[in-house]
User: Which sequence fits this backbone?
């Protein structure tokens, strides 16, 4: 017999139900924590970093030479629209700015400085940031025809890296495009009313860009070339450099917003905003340095 004062019998389903409830609460807390972390991470990706510190470089004097005769029509129109009848002779250029870059599928804020001995060497310094602070840094050099990329996950070198770097050397001259006229190693060939082919040196070989100009403004719109993505690639990939808008910066008209796209990825992996342009500064030591 059961007395009235005895505790009620425990049903067999009580403990499993309580455990399920505790399990659901734990899962909810975990999901909530992950959602909060994801939200914080997303906010960090929305914070633009400050500009890089000044490089301590000063622009030098710039001379000019006449636009040569015999250029393809869209090329002639481009240079006369940009400069008039005289183009500047650029020996060095340092371009700085901010933007975004995609790394392993995630688009991060970034800041950059690209330094060029025009038509010969360059140095890239790039910082990818989170909450405005450096998350990782990239140092790249293309000196005397050889490239070295020091990345957070290793060093990249080799002939196919050199090929890509050589194309970058000439594509980035879009910030100071008079070099495409003043360097005697380059050659223009006609294509149609709004595009032309630019042949550039690569050691003893020749590489080419197809350059498309805006039919309304006459300014450069897009550069197309075939580039190796990495040293292990067997085939080249269509590489696109686009100038989305042009404007005046420190007395020079330059592409203000540019994008870089691998055609097989479909969307730009880099979007860059030009903020500073230094021309004809002394880069003898700076071009081989490390950091900003």
Assistant:
């Amino acid at each position: 017999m059961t007395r009235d004062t005895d505790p009620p019998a425990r049903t067999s389903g009580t403990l499993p139900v309580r455990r399920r409830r505790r399990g659901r609460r734990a899962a909810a807390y975990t999901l909530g924590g992950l959602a909060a972390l994801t939200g914080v991470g997303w906010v960090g990706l929305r914070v633009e970093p400050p500009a890089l510190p000044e490089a301590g470089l000063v622009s030098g004097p710039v001379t000019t030479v006449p636009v040569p005769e015999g250029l393809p029509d869209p090329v002639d129109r481009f240079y006369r629209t940009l400069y008039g009848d005289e183009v500047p002779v650029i020996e060095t250029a340092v371009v700085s700015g901010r933007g975004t870059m995609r790394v392993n599928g995630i688009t991060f804020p970034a800041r950059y400085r690209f330094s060029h001995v025009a038509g010969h060497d360059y140095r890239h310094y790039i910082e990818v940031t989170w909450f405005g602070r450096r998350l990782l840094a990239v140092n790249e050099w293309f000196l005397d025809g050889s490239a070295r990329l020091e990345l957070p996950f290793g060093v990249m070198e080799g002939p196919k890296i050199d090929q890509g770097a050589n194309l970058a050397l000439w594509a980035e001259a879009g910030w100071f495009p008079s070099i495409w006229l003043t360097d005697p190693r380059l050659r223009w060939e006609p294509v149609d009313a709004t595009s032309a082919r630019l042949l550039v040196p690569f050691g003893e070989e020749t590489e080419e860009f197809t350059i498309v100009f805006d039919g309304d403004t006459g300014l450069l719109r897009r550069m197309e070339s075939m580039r190796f993505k990495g040293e292990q690639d067997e085939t080249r990939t269509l590489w696109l450099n686009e100038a989305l808008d042009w404007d005046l910066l420190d007395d020079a008209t330059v592409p203000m917003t540019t994008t870089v796209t691998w055609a097989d990825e479909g969307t730009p992996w880099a979007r860059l905003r030009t903020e500073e342009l230094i021309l004809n500064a002394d880069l003898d030591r700076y071009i081989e340095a490390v950091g900003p």
